[in-house]
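ok so I'm stuck.
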Amino acid sequence: MWCHAALAQPGGGGGISIIHVCDENLVAIQRADTSYSWMVLKMDGHDPNAAIEKSQIPLQPRYWYQHKEGVLSLSCPTGSHRIIGIHGTDTMMVDLYNIMGENGAGISEVMDSLVFRKGAFSFDCGYIDQKMIPTRSRGITPSSFIPLVEAGILIEYNFIPSKFLLEKNFSASHMLELASQCVYEYKRYNEGIEWANKAREKGLNKVDDRRARMTIAKGEEGLGNLEQAYDIVRSMHENSPDAAVYTIELELLKKMGRHQEALEIHDWICRDGAHWNISSRAIYRAAYLNDYWGALNDWDQIIDNIPEKYMTDRWMGSNNYGYAYSQRALVQFRLNNPSKGYSDFYHSMYFFGNEQQIPTILNALDSLDRRGFNDPKVPLIRAMASMRAGMDYMNSDRQKEDAYEKALKYFDKVDKSYRNFGDYYFFLAEAHFLYKKYDEAYAAIQTAFKYDDKNPRYYMMRYVIRIRLDGDRKTGADEDRVRSNELSQKAKYPIK
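replied:
not stuck anymore, here's the structure
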């Protein structure tokens, strides 16, 4: 029955896991057993009655019900928490203090077992190791109860705190927290709206009142009352238009089919010229208004203003702009500009790390093939797409090897006229490199230099290849890295 594998908490370890929760007969309680009810409350301080009122919010389900072959387990994050178990007329309450904090080693504390026992207790998790308590006693069980009490780790209260459970003692901020959890976590919209209204009646500061109104709007949206939700959100613009409020308005207008009004809001948001806002408008134009020319203008605006540093730094570029080319390609095909569309797909594949666009690109290419479209760039696009798709970390070694072989076949199909420039060999080197074929990668990138010896991207590729090689070929790796940085600052190298 004893287990020593901790359930790591989000953020790098920390927290405590109670592996088995048992009844008074030491039988593991099943997750489906409805005769027991459990909740975990976050505590603030060590006062068993008053301090918990500040934040006695039930934790999200992911923190407290863990599955282990149907057996009930509990898990608390770092800090101090109260576990409450109710069975019939009996209540067990355990306050866990000094729970292990987050740590770089990803280690979490473990309590092997918690046996249901009527009463209220405090358990100091921080002193288990210091007091040299045996591993098999790391729990609240009949056999460990007395040793833990004698060690001062487990203390039994002479009463069961209950004041914190009375609604009249709830603060307005706590009511708002309950409202948020009901609406956003548990989807109990009516209950959440009720708590938010009670919080507003009790009195909230300006910031929290705004949050309460937003929670009510979200609850109305969840109930399908879109007009009521929209009216609430619209009323939240105070002295001037609020971009955060507009973002929520957009979602409601989209659900109500009021797309022209939504586009007007997009226009207002795009005044700052931020590419992520313009891209949202472009996608909205194409998806909901069939305004492909407007979408094309938006994508042109983004791509025409890509800073040179993002073109040279392919990692940074993929995170910021790589998606723009593939999205513009889809628009080009809609506007019957296949040559420009294929060119944009090729450009999008240039950005390393742009894997999230691969399924879109491959599906579009398949559709275009069926419609009879073709272009000399297609084999090279498919080669790079296959190469990137195969690198999914979820793929097995066999799947990665198959993707590599598939990519090489597409590289072989590339028309000779498209092999007479350095980027063909640059991408071929990348394919070999990603699949750890470093000798082949080195040979390919050396060929690329025959076509262009001033391209900073080629020097950076040769650098990352060289540092994985031995002997003379490794010599000069640092010089390649320095040369790449120097060239990237002196000249522009657009995608060809």
